[in-house]
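Format notes (please read before filing issues)

Several people have asked whether sequences and structure tokens are stored in separate files. They are not. Every record keeps both together, in the order shown below: the sequence lines, then the token lines. Line labels are part of the format and must not be stripped during preprocessing.
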Amino acid sequence: MAEFKEISPNASGAAKLTNWFENRFPTAFAGYRDHMSEYYAPKNFNFWYFFGSLAMLVLVIQIVTGIFLVMHYKPDAAKAFESVEYIMRDVPWGWLVRYMHSTGASAFFIVVYLHMYRGLIYGSYRKPRELVWVFGCAIFLVLMAEAFMGYLLPWGQMSYWGAQVIVNLFSAIPFIGPDLALLIRGDYVVSDATLNRFFSFHVIAVPLVLLGLVAAHILALHDVGSNNPDGVEIKGAKALKDAKGKPLDGIPFHPYYTVHDIFGVAVFLMVFTAIIFFAPEAGGYFLEYNNFIPADPLKTPAHIAPVWYFTPYYSMLRAITTEMMYVLIACVLGAAAFGVLKSRLPSIGKAAVAVAAIVAIALMWGIDPKFWGVVTMGGAVIILFFLPWLDNSPVKSIRYRPGWHKWVYGVFVVDFLVLGYLGVQPVTDIGTRVSQIGTLFYFGFFLLMPWWSRLGEFKPVPERITFAAH
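Then the structure lines:
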């Protein structure tokens, strides 16, 4: 057992109480020092670094408001919609709790998308932070599952039919599809059994996984140290340190960045509360108007679309038509021809590429495009996990890359937004063509990254981070 630390009898009551706790729970105080007061972060963080802490804030908001909603919600197909109406109309401040939770769901994805984009432009997924990025992508994937399951719970028209459409997508998987869809629904259609299992996962199982991944994400980050806009390492053998071994370009996270993040939290909460009080439906994007109508299995809405944060992937799903399959087959043929004719692979490697291409084309030709739409939708998320090994740029940060790289990233963002917009619109011929082009660009951005990320004239990276007081 560790020896107790002594404290002066003349110390203040607060100091004595702190000493009493530290002697009996030293691990907590060591964790505070490791991850707050003695965790050195780069001193040139900018506004892009608000979004990690904001994601933590929204997670807390969702958990707290979710607890209060569960107190009054009934996971019963005959009572679920009425219980939500009861919360909105009769529970004291229930409308506020419900709107905080629904707005928080959209806010969660907004800050997570911005957080991921910051990692993309500053190379926060590069060595030695590959595992940090992988944990982050896993958080994003689990968050999508959590949001999808929670979306069914109000049991409105869009909740019901949206779940019906998405779950039915799994039936397109060859051989196991119908049984998998049946397992997810718990019935042959979306019903009370589906509502109960989605409620169980949304409230208990998925949040536990999410919290575990968040803890792993933060611990992995603090082990290797935070990245910065310059991409210059402040930890490790090559980093510049003072006589005490502290990074010269770092400052303690607490109190400097806790105060920094409090400012970001204040601005975020002003926007968040403005939406809650003045536009909680956000024009039908945060809460669809059809979801204020009770679920009716006999009446299909004119246009079924998922919530806005799923729509880029839904747009990619709808882009995969029979005509699009011919384009994808041509892409596979072109990639295989390049691998066989232009690459430096040995003969056996070239033969393997040719065989793999033949098998892939046979599968693409013989399986329903609906299945490949599901594969495309899932692949759009899964490909993010491989980003650390796709980027071959000699520098991390966009600051020191060729100027045209910024245009590539800019077009990527515009492409993602356009796909998101098309995902909430009814299907049209023009919309389908644009979404097909957008889908090709989305995957081309990542799959061609090993090539284009090396091109151009790169600027010299400074030995120390650049910083201007503000």
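For reference, the curators noted about this record: The chain has 18 helices and two strands. The chain has a mean pLDDT of 91.
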